[in-house]
Design brief:
four-stranded antiparallel β-sheet; 6 helices; 2 domains; 13 strands; 28% strand
């Protein structure tokens, strides 16, 4: 039933003659059309919002850890997602089991320990995710990571990352100067045969492996630019602002296409 015929039946129900009901219907329809035509354009336009700032998702893992492949598979699956910067940091402390991780670095191990030192739990584990440096998720727990990503917020301008420089705009000054870090990572899938240790006999696919971690300087609220050598060998660049060693990540950006 159309809304016009329904309206006419309601008028008839209260005793209005059919002819007058039809006239009232036509007048009401004309007024409605006129009001819609004269409504301000801004009232009819759909609301829009700015895109969410990228969220830095760091996975700490080892090729010698049998619990890590499921977590790495999840990280690999979100590697191309917009507004997420997933990075795989390989740690060194499982090398004693008989397999030396081919991409591990003591600097990455120390970075994970710095996070733990400033957290309430002081927990160091593999696999372990850190989301914007402030939320930790231990184990292969995609639901937990997704919830942390959804609640993550940036508090500083998103770095504009170019081939040879990064620009950070003006923003509210942090309580103390934020450290500015450059990460070089490999977006390609690298298949690594594991010959020993807990994952011996398996071939593990790595994606977004961190290959370099370099401190560029600090940001105190004023617009600033840092220069660096363009990445080589197919690597990409990500830049993030962090509240000191093991502190929260204030914002992050990368040169990855989205």
């Amino acid at each position: 039933m159309s809304r016009f015929s329904s309206f006419a039946r309601r008028l008839a129900a209260i005793g209005l003659p059919l002819g007058l009901a039809g006239s009232a219907l036509l007048v009401g329809h004309a007024l409605t059309q006129n009001a819609m035509a004269n409504a301000p354009t801004a009232q009819r336009a759909p609301a829009t919002s700015a895109p969410a700032a990228p969220v830095l998702v760091e996975l700490y893992q080892s090729e010698g850890c049998s619990s890590c492949p499921p977590a790495e598979a999840y990280l690999n699956s979100i590697a191309g997602r917009a507004n997420v910067i997933p990075l795989a940091f390989e740690v060194t402390y499982w090398d004693y089991l008989g397999w030396k991780d081919t991409f591990a670095s003591p600097a990455y191990t120390q970075r994970q320990r710095d996070f733990a030192a400033r957290s309430a739990s002081h927990e160091v584990a593999t696999p372990q995710f850190w989301i914007n440096g402030s939320q930790s998720v231990v184990g292969a727990n995609p639901r937990g990571v997704e919830a942390a990503i959804a609640s993550a917020r940036s508090t500083a301008p998103v770095p504009s990352v170019g081939a040879g420089s990064v620009t950070i705009g003006k923003g509210a000054a942090p309580a103390r100067p934020a450290e500015v870090w450059l990460v070089r990572y490999d977006p390609r899938t690298i298949e690594v045969p594991i010959r020993a240790g807990e994952n011996g006999g398996r071939t593990l696919p790595h994606k977004n492996l961190v290959r370099e971690l370099t401190r560029l300087g600090t940001w105190s609220g004023a617009a600033v630019q840092f220069s660096y050598a363009p990445p080589a060998g197919g690597l990409r660049s990500a830049v993030f602002l962090q509240d000191g060693r093991g502190g929260a990540v204030l914002s992050a950006g990368s040169d990855a296409p989205h």
